[in-house]
UniProtKB/TrEMBL annotation:
Annotated GO biological process: thyroid hormone metabolic process
GO MF annotation terms: pyrroline-2-carboxylate reductase activity; thiomorpholine-carboxylate dehydrogenase activity; thyroid hormone binding
Organism of this sequence: Triplophysa tibetana
Record-stated family: Belongs to the ornithine cyclodeaminase/mu-crystallin family.
Gene3D superfamilies listed in its UniProt record: NAD(P)-binding Rossmann-like Domain (3.40.50.720), ornithine cyclodeaminase, domain 1 (3.30.1780.10)
One of the record's GO cellular component terms: cytoplasm
Protein known as: Ketimine reductase mu-crystallin
Reaction catalysis annotation: L-pipecolate + NAD(+) = Delta(1)-piperideine-2-carboxylate + NADH + H(+); (3R)-1,4-thiomorpholine-3-carboxylate + NADP(+) = 3,4-dehydrothiomorpholine-3-carboxylate + NADPH + 2 H(+); (R)-lanthionine ketimine + NADPH + 2 H(+) = (3R,5R)-1,4-thiomorpholine-3,5-dicarboxylate + NADP(+); (S)-cystathionine ketimine + NADPH + 2 H(+) = (3R,5S)-2,3,5,6,7-pentahydro-1,4-thiazepine-3,5-dicarboxylate + NADP(+)
Known EC number: 1.5.1.1, 1.5.1.25
InterPro entries: NAD(P)-bd_dom_sf (IPR036291), ODC_Mu_crystall (IPR003462), ODC_N (IPR023401)
Subunit annotation: Homodimer. Binds the thyroid hormone triiodothyronine (T3); T3 binding inhibits enzymatic activity.
C-alpha cells in the first residue's frame, strides 16, 4: 500500500495541462487558479512550467490560505478578493476547490476562456453554474465517468 497523494496531485495537474495545451486561447496571458490547496499548487507548478503567462492570480475562500500559497512561490501571484475579480479577463481558469455549490458564473468569464474544472468530482458537488455549463463546449476524458461522477455535468443536465 502506498500513499497516492503526490501521484494524484501531479497526474491531475498533468491532465489539466494537456487540456489547456489543446484548448486554451492562442493568446493566453492570464492564468487564474480558484483554490489554494494541494491541487492548486500542483496546477500552478505544471501550468507555469509549460506555459508562459504574464499574470497569475489566485482566489480562495480564506484569504490567509491564499497568502500562505503565494508566500511559498518565487514568482509573483496576485491574491484576489473575489472569484469575480480573479476570473475577470482570465484566459485560463483552473477550479480546484472543495466547493459543493457553484462558485463560478458564466457572466464573469471572458469569451473563449479555457476552464480546467477539477474540484467537483462527486455527483452532488458543484463549481460551475448551470449557465456556464450550458454555454460552454464541454470536453471530458470519459463520458461514462463524467456522467457518474461530475456534479457539474450531472446536476446541470448537459
Ligand atoms: N478531478 C480529479 O481528478 C481530482 C479532483 N480533486 C478534487 O479537487 C479539489 C481540491 O483538491 P485538493 O487541492 O487536494 O484539496 P485541498 O483540501 O488541499 O484544498 C481544497 C481547497 O478548496 C477550498 N474549499 C474547500 N471548501 C470550499 C468551498 N465550500 N467553497 C470554496 N472553496 C472551498 C479550500 O479553500 P480554503 O482553504 O480557503 O477554505 C482549499 O483551497 C477537491 O474537491 C478534490 O476532491 C482532487 C484530486 C483529483
Ligand atoms: O485520484 C483521483 O482521481 C481522485 N479524484 C477525486 C478525489 C480524490 C482523488
Amino acid at each position: 500500500m502506498m500513499d497516492g497523494e503526490a501521484i494524484t496531485a501531479i497526474r491531475t495537474a498533468a491532465v489539466s495541462a494537456i487540456s489547456a495545451k489543446l484548448l486554451r486561447p492562442l493568446v493566453s496571458d492570464v492564468l487564474c487558479i480558484l483554490g489554494s490547496g494541494q491541487q492548486a499548487r500542483s496546477h500552478y507548478d505544471v501550468f507555469t512550467k509549460i506555459f508562459k503567462f504574464k499574470e497569475v492570480r489566485v482566489w480562495s475562500r480564506r484569504r490567509e490560505m491564499c497568502e500562505r500559497f503565494v508566500a511559498d512561490l518565487e514568482e509573483p501571484v496576485v491574491v484576489c478578493r473575489s472569484v469575480r475579480d480573479a476570473v475577470s479577463g482570465a484566459d485560463v481558469i483552473v477550479t480546484v476547490t472543495g466547493a459543493t455549490e457553484p462558485i463560478l458564473r458564466a457572466e464573469w468569464i471572458k469569451s473563449g476562456a479555457h476552464i480546467a474544472a477539477v474540484g467537483a468530482c462527486r455527483p452532488d458537488w458543484r463549481e460551475l453554474d448551470d449557465v456556464l455549463m450550458r454555454e460552454a463546449l464541454v470536453y471530458v476524458d470519459s463520458r461514462d465517468g463524467a456522467h457518474a461522477e461530475s456534479g457539474d455535468i450531472i446536476l446541470s443536465g448537459v
